[in-house]
Please model this.
Amino acid sequence: MTLVLFGLFFLFMLLGVPIAFAIGASALYALHQSGVPLMVVTQQMFQGINSFALVAIPMFILAGDLMAQGKVSERLVSFADSLVGFMRGGLSVVSVMAGMFFAAISGSGAATTAAVGSSLVPELKRKGYDPASAASLIAASGTIGVVIPPSVPMIIYAVIAQQSVSKLFLNGFLPGLAMGLGLMAIAITQAYKRQYPKGTPLSLSTIWRTLKAASWGLMTPVIILGGIFSGIFTPSEAAVVAVNYALLVSLFVYRDLTLPQVYKLLIRSAMTTAVIMLVIAMSAVLSWTLSSWQVPGAIAQSVLSLSTNPYVIMLLVVAVILLTGVFIETASALIILTPVLLPLVLQLGIDPIHFGLIIVVGLSIGMITPPVAINLYVASSVTQLPLERITRAIIPYLLGLIGVLLLVVYVPILLGWSGN
Model:
């Protein structure tokens, strides 16, 4: 029956059925064939979204949309340019740094790619940078958007795995920083190879001026994360604070949003939230079905029978995560994989917070691996370049991010790291 369930799921996916309905329909059929009362479906759907932590998702999405729509991204790009623009190929480094800044505001890979891309692409083209390489770097930088807190996927994982959102956020900084530094190293290497020009001369007055202009945007992660880690408010409460702060800055400080635009953003954020919540609700039914049939335990035993070496098994887990990210978008893949893989890694003695970082970083790479590469589609839209050109140019950055993922997997294991 397990094979039938997964077979139906992949069949629905190939037929183009939306992911939420593919999950729900396959689980529904399996439950019906097992003689389970269909009332269980509605009960598990409700149970799946009946979590206070999930309140943070629509709020962080809305806060990110508010910041992305306005001119916060332009000010962040200018500040990053004042810091590192003087280097050869400095605009490439600015792309990554601006992506990291905006990641700490939006929690969304696509929003980070769109915001940074729309601000930087015209300047990159004007200064003679290879358009496809620049677009691919911006798309790769966008993956950091779901790793550096606040992160919507981390919230979803915390709810499914019953872990602390605050601990995940606290431990998400180093992997995000490692991803950024890795991309910068590749970008600088390519800049010297292609003889990209040097940019804006380093000037303390320019740094101070751009810092003042970007300070309201830079304060967003300080308020959100500072409040969470100091215990002033929970992650869910922090998300509401983030929305109010974003409204205050956009409407009254920068004055780059109007009330009609805010209304449209509310509608768009509500639609995005509805999709995510429907996927979570349907996946709760699937998770309950798999747990009832003891599928995760059986998979864990099967994998452990292949090897007792935790390094080999974690390499297999990484391969599964990366392969899943190629075909299924991040939130859906996270919801599907967590109940299946978590029991396995727990048997290996891997800390669940550590595994949360592994699966989020691994699935974030799926944002730049076709066919579901959302960041590549956004970069293609912003730059008006064919997807094929950007896909070819993304390969060095993709390999670099996979290297960072392996560091995230193995270095904490070697050091005996614990997220507690």
Remarks:
- The two ends are 38 Å apart (CA to CA).
- The chain has 21 helices and no strands.
- The chain has a mean pLDDT of 84.
- Residues 3 and 222 are 47 Å apart (CA to CA).
